[in-house]
Structures are given as structure tokens and as C-alpha cells.
Amino acid sequence: MGKVCAVIVTYNRLEMLKECIDALLNQTYSLDGILIINNNSTDGTKEYLDVLVKENKKVQVLHLNENIGGAGGFHIGVKEAYEQGYDWIWIMDDDAEPDVDCLKNLMDFVCGNKDIGFVAPLIVNKYSNKIQNYHHKKLNRTLTKDIPISLELINSQKAIELDANAFVGPLISKKAVKAVGFPREDFFIWLDDTEYTYRIKQQMSSYLITNAIMYHKDGISPNDAVKNFWKVCYGLRNRSLWISSNLKGMNLFIGNVLLVIEFIKRMLVICLKKKWKYNRLLGLRYLFRTIWYSFKGISGKFIDPQQYLSKVKSITVDEQFS
């Protein structure tokens, strides 16, 4: 069945990282290696991982000198695991925690099926136990809309064909990496997972395996919409780059029109919604920057997360809805 390496990208979430690693080490299907990409964490992650490497020979760590985003981290991680000769690369963020039988159920499926590009476990919120079906996607022809796999389908089938999936546990074959290359590091963050798994799907079969469970520890706080807007900006810019590099003719034209409409919607939200009442100028400034980079086709890092967050003014829950 081949050798399997888990690739984790981490940044300043040490406790979650520990839980992720513990879950990987306790899989009923034993991993051959665990490769951790430390995106220049400053919370004690480096010191913890340096000790772990000495204690467990399966664990490898690459400490980066700067935070190159999730996209850059996954680019390096997939490339390193591929060059080390692993047959399967299991990729995830540090807020993922696989169920004890997760890898076993994924491998059971790929064992009996040829031409597999990737298989993905079912993503379930760790805190609410709700299925996050929006991470398992079909895509429209203009690549402007992610269509979640329906809960009805998830509850009735063991394997469901996918167009794309989040980087929360997809198991990717060596053949797929050889065919399509590595994740796009120039995206920095957001949509790198959708673009990469869609690229694989164009050449090979890809499935959601519903009896393989991956717990996801992403919480919600009142100010998330404003605080996370810098990520939304990357998502919008990256979708524009993706559309431009994949579509032609009428689909490209329609895709760009729909992107313009999305930018207008975002502008109206910033101008009208109470959650933006203290940050309207900030939001508009970063949105216009995103529009510029999108239609100029400029990739790479264009927003510094810490710089953006330092300018955000907080708003209470009552103020958002009063």
C-alpha cells in the first residue's frame, strides 16, 4: 500500500499542534513519517519540536525563518515529502485532529482503487460535532462558487466524488504530485487548497470518504468578520488569479464579471453593516488594495497580517446587533 507521511503546517498554536501530533501517533494505521513545517512560530513551538525530534525518529521538522503563509508551508511540505519518496502525503493544518481510525479508513479505500489523486476525510467541528460540509466541494464552471457536498449525500454514501477540498486531511498520492506539481506558494493563504485539489481532480479521481473522520478545531468569536478580513482579501485575490490562469473565452468573462459583483457586495457590507462601524475606512482601504492586485494579476504576499490586525478597532457583540 506504500509509505505514508503526514505533513502539518503550524504557526503559534502549540497546544493544538500537540493534540494533532498525538492523534497522528495513535492512528490504528501506523504512519511512516510526520513532517512538521514550523512557520516561524514564537510561542515555544520550536523548543517543543526540537525535543520531540530527539524522542521520536518518525518526526521531522523544518523551522522556517519567516512566516510564508499556509500556502508556502504546504508547498515546502509536499515537495519535501515527495522528494523523500513517500507514496502518500497526508496534509493538514495544526487545528486538525484525526479520529483514531481516520487514516486506516482512507487507506482501505485507496487500496482497492486505482488512479486515485486524493481522498479526503469527513471534516467535523470538534466543539459542536457538526459536519463542515462546506470544506468538501463541487465547483461551478466559472470557478466563482464553491458548492458544498450535501449532508443528505454524506449521510447516505461511503465515497463521494469531489472537485476540491480543504487542506484539513486530504491524502494525496505520489502519482498526483508527479502529475500536477506542488501547491501554489504565491497564494500565501486561502484558496491554495481548493486550487491544488482541483488541479489534481482534473487529471485523477478524488473522493470524500465519509467513514474517515477528521475533527477540526476552528472556533468563532464576535469580531472574527473584521479580524479575518485580511484572509478574505487573499481569498478574493487568489480566486482572481486562479480564474485568469484556468479559464478562457466566455467562462473567463463571466467569471470576472461575477468577481466584480463580489467586490461590490463586500464594499456594501463594509459601508452598511454595524460590525464594521469602527473599521469602515480600514476595510475599504484593504478592499481597494485587493481589487488592484487582483486585476493586475499580482501574486505573492500583499497584506501583512500583523500590520492589519494592529489597526483593527474592537466591537462588542451588543454593538454588532444593536
Q: Output the radius of gyration.
A: 20 Å
Strand content: 15-25%
The total domain count is 2
Class inferred from helices and paired strands: alpha/beta
Q: What is the third-level CATH name, the topology of the largest domain?
A: Spore Coat Polysaccharide Biosynthesis Protein SpsA, Chain A
Largest sheet: 9 strands, mixed
**CATH-level-2 architecture of the largest domain:** Alpha-Beta Complex
| CATH class annotation of the largest domain | Alpha Beta
Mean pLDDT: 95
End-to-end CA span: 58 Å
Low-confidence stretches: 317-322
Number of strands: 12
Tally of individual helices? 13
User: What's the SSE pattern?
Assistant: EHEHEHEEHEEEHEEEHHEHHHHHH
CATH-defined superfamily of the largest domain: Spore Coat Polysaccharide Biosynthesis Protein SpsA, Chain A
Assign an overall shape: globular
Portion of residues within helices? 40-55%
Give the SSE layout.
Elements: E1 4-10, H1 14-25, E2 33-38, H2 45-55, E3 59-63, H3 69-83, E4 88-93, E5 96-98, H4 102-111, E6 116-125, E7 136-139, E8 146-148, H5 151-154, E9 159-161, E10 164-165, E11 168-173, H6 174-180, H7 192-201, E12 205-216, H8 224-227, H9 229-246, H10 249-272, H11 280-296, H12 305-311, H13 317-321
